[in-house]
Amino acid sequence: MAAKANFETPAFRPYPVIPILKPGAMKGNGPFVAKPPMQEALGFPGELIDNWHDVAIEKMGELLKKYRSLRVYLDACVKCGACTDKCHYMIGTFDPKNMPVARQDLLRQVYRRYFTLAGKWFPKLVGAKDLTREVLDDWYNYFHQCSQCRRCSVFCPYGIDTADVSMAAREILDSVGKGQKYCNEIIAKVYKIGNNLGLPEPALRDTLEGLEEDIKDETGVDVRLPVDEEGAEVLVITPSADFFAEPHIDGLIGYAKVFHQAGISWTLSSSASEAANFSMFIGSYENMRRVALRIREAAINLKVKRIIFGECGHAWRVAYSFLNTLVGPFDFLDQRYPIPQHICEFTYDLIQKGALKLDKSANDHRRVTFHDSCNVARASRMGDMPGGQFIIPREVIKASCNHFYDMPADTIHDQTYCCGGGGGLLTDDLMELRVKGALPRMEALKHVVDNYGVTHMAAICAICKTQFAKVLPYYGFEMDQIISVHQLVSDAIVLSVDEI
Amino acid sequence: MGFWTTFYALSFYTATLILVLGLAYKIYQYAKTPAPLKVPTMPAPLTTGGVVVRVLMEVVLFQSLFRSNKWIWLFAMLFHAALWVVLLRHLRYFIEPVWFWVVLVQPFGKYGSFVMLFGLLGLLVRRLFVERIRYISSPSDYLMLILLLVIGGSGVMVSFVTHTDIVHFKAFMLGVMYFDWQPIPTDSILLVHLTAVILLMIIFPFSKLLHAPGVFFSPSRNQVDNAREKRHVAPWAIKQFESPPPVVD
User: Fold this and answer.
1) Which of A15, A110, B22, B42 has the fewest C-beta atoms under 10 angstroms from its C-beta?
2) Residue A56 is part of which domain span?
3) Are residues B243 and A340 in contact, defined by beta-carbon separation less than 8 angstroms?
């Protein structure tokens, strides 16, 4: 299944050892650089500007004034080393610059040189460095080897979050004209067409009609997947991958069946046909707001009462943690429900109320484990208690199937390992990094496969699903072993015919 | 008044000024810089009270570090806890009469210094011999540990080996505090001890020792998880995007 690769897939380790460093192992030019039209669509210079040095320093100064996180994180690190073995890219590549602290230091060395007395007077002593072209290239390369998963932040005694540091670094890079092709092209596509995949409205309607027919053929029930239906109760915002490919699409069918069964009217929006907000990955508040604004506008135009997000990790972070900040307040929505709500919260509530009939035996051919997606696990919540984001998806799975097994405790919940493709790295030009970064998750999966005969890993993130479908074969698994949580729901749900 | 008395008295004033003003500036800077987004590392507390507990667990027990690495936690904990006891013991050189509880602390502080040195040595050994930590260390990271070892080592020396005239020294210290200078005892180990402490005070606001105020300001640890319930917007974001505010129809 796996394409011929010019790198070696890391071997499973008999027991977790801390790798010996291989300096420069992942040195390189980084992912493809964004072309001028994409850059300009986002309000950035088309290509590396001549006075990049001064602009970069000025931008850093601006960010230091805007973000307390950046200021405190750059000051507070004591180089204790607690984070050095926590990053999946470090574990998979052995490159010391993939240790979270070393990655931060790429920015911190410049911060110290230009913004601290110690670095201005004694640069060698405190490891401060001038911003040279070499440093800039290191930024571009290594800040695109961070999936912004926040695992290091869990373990840092000061909560220093490399995700925030890498977002700042990418914003500086964008501001001097050196943006990443994958992220910026996608954001430009959202502006132009409405979603990451560049799926135009007619194609979207076509796809949804096709899905309705498929469900009808399979179940004999008319389950609807409406788009742009004014006055619907719920606006569903879901990653465009859900309209496009396995295993995502089975999740979308699952949402539709849940709404059908609950008897709650819902609609998708053709103008906000995308939950993803890649502007978070590039640290651009302005673009993040602009992308999020589509959702607010769609909710107003369609006169809905609730907003529910589909299975997408970073989108849920933006939705849960940032949406109210960026484009709130949402006083025009029904205040009795969380704004916004996650599809798992919605389904879980219905299960609690006994409103869904689920036949678990329909999933008896599957033995399931659950991959906590980093942005859901460490950057958001579900339900009304801390850690609900771990409980609710698992409860939904357990209500839908008989065989559920968790992966080892140090690889789940807030210690979950990234899939290896998050943070804007889900691009073919970073395939080596993606495969290597998946190692710790693959090891954890192997553990439950060997010990409990697990056949499938369920996830609630479009990036995770796409990434796993691609990298599972490198580790000797099948690409279809990754499934959507709502695919399990979809297969277990007993539809009533008289409902419509 | 002798040269050393004048030198150390003036040095103490300078160092105290730099420490206090430097820290005040940094704290002001941290407090004034907005945190425009809700970014607590989840799961996070849902209430301010919960956040207070979370931050205290970090500050007092190094909770995250404990989850992260037991060795670093052990050495860091020994060092910091012993440092506090030793510092409290030192209060007796700055107050007269000495408070009752400061008297009680004396023996703990006296022997606590060995625990402090042990913790520091543990951290230094790790920095020297664990490849990953050596890789991320700058000269200043080693020097900081060495400076603290010099402070602890010379402190142990004056307590247990050379026995400085402590009554004499206390008179100097109180004299400095009340601007009524008294001569300083000039045994060399004591002067090394004082020099290292003065240096540390001066370096504090310009170095990674800023982790001490920083830990209280870390948004990933001190934010309440209530983004859906309460709108959180930075002043600069309002200014940039919401004046006039978004129209709701």
Assistant:
1) A15
2) 48-176
3) no
